[in-house]
Amino acid sequence: MNTDMPASPQTIFTETEISKHKRWTENVMRIFFLVMTSLMILPLLLIVGYLFYKSLPVLSLEFLFTNPKDNMRAGGLWAPFLGTIYLVVVSLLVSAPIGVFAAVYLNEYARESWFTRIMNLAVVNLAGVPSIVHALFGVGAFVLFAGLGESILAASLTLAIMTLPVIIASTTEALKAVPMSFREACWNLGATRWQTIRRIVIPNSISGILTGVILQVSRAAGETAPIMFTGAVFYKNIAEGNLFAYNITEQCMALSLHLFTISTQVPDVSEGVPYGTAVVLVGSVLLVNAAAIVLRVYLRTRKRW
Amino acid sequence: MKSNNQNGSQNPAVIEVADLKVRYGDKSALKGVSFDVYRNEILGIIGPAQSGKTTLLKVINRTLEFTPDTTVEGSVRLDGEDISTIGDVYGLRRRIGMVQPLPVGLPLSIYDNVAFAPRTAGVRSKSELDETVERCLQQAALWEEVKDRLSTLGTKLSGGQQQRLTIARALSHQPDILCLDEFSIAVDPITTMRIEDVLKTLQTEMTILLVTNLVQQAKRLANRTAFFLNGDLIEIDATDIIFSENPSEQATYDYVNGTFG
Fold first, then answer.
1. Does the domain formed by B13-256 have CATH 3.40.430.10?
2. Do A189 and B68 touch (CB under 8 A)?
3. Is the pTM of this model over 0.90?
4. N or C terminus of chain B with fewer C-beta within 10 Å?
């Protein structure tokens, strides 16, 4: 069979100049993108590796659970570590519900109007405001006007204002990923908007929503400017090992500010301490991000369409 | 326009559409159409894209309200009641079963797909839901294929099965009217035939609006057929007459016989 085929397989599959050139371009582009990707990972590995190496002498559980001592030249991180946890948790308790519900309103209920256009414009622009501007707003609005004084509450609210637009944006993306046809099918069945949101939209976008919120943990933990004038303090002595050692109407220490202080303001700090502080800060952020990834992978395996 | 139909006209009108105009922004989708749909008939609705067929269905169950920037004039009456002033819009939607062109299995189990509408309407009794699920899947000719795996995801079924699931779901709230919008687009010919048989059986219990791009499907199933073109109702008449050598309008003849334009 096939004896009278017009062209033999050999002639069809012989490489031409054009296909050679295509193959060459394909390889070059692949290597180019690979190099770019590696360039992105390299600094991260170097930073983490260097910090870890430099901080080896001080790293221990004791370092995490004791307060700084000798005018912050030695000792551990308990007060700033717990302070950062307080700031992050309180700020997300405020910004996550407001952000998620605002995004649900904008995406599921609101019709296109001047109001929604202004809201969307505000979200985009607020996300681009420098953190020092948020700090000044926090001083004016929360510390002075609302009379909260310099406190964990004022600092957390400032961080909440900073993370809010990003949470709205990421939640909107997650909601948009649920196909419109699902909503239409529900409406056709006589479901209200709320029934549609509760039974179909939220269950199928919750992984994206949570990921967006969790990623804001690292931002809230890492920022120094917004908390400097609103509630974070250079030094505060608290009970070691007590999770409730802070009162949210009072000031607290924070890892990011602590790192800044001991690196620039305090003379003769033993070398390992700033590096140890950085490792704890970066380490906790990476840990939280890893949790976000695990959660996303888990929820993706349950993806239902 | 005449409607000297032997099957439909002796039955009372279920839907009365009068001078219905719909605009999306400043673009006209329906330009003043009037017609009645009679109880227990299958009304075929044919016409090319952009002729307003889907818009018509969305007006009837008032889901057009979810599309921004639309204006509706004229009236649609369901059993004599003007739908625009109906109090319970969700109840209205449950009186109308809607099947969309592409099968949409909700990301829920097969059971939950069919139980969705009864549950949103407040049915909680397990035995009642069980009974509804079995009845609807039976009616949609899907029961035998899925009865042993009701807890698997509706979205994991094949396209043809999902479309029958959609029909089962549309029947779950016991509608008086079933609207099908080009249901056979994503369905193989065998499944299409099975669904057509299902529709013939359902006709005894409800009124069916069948929007279709397959004119032969309208010819096979519909008692009467309406031909829409660019937002106008060109002609509505007994299917025999629409598909005969001499319908009232030349455009109808051209479209039905594929010599359009």
1. no
2. no
3. no
4. C
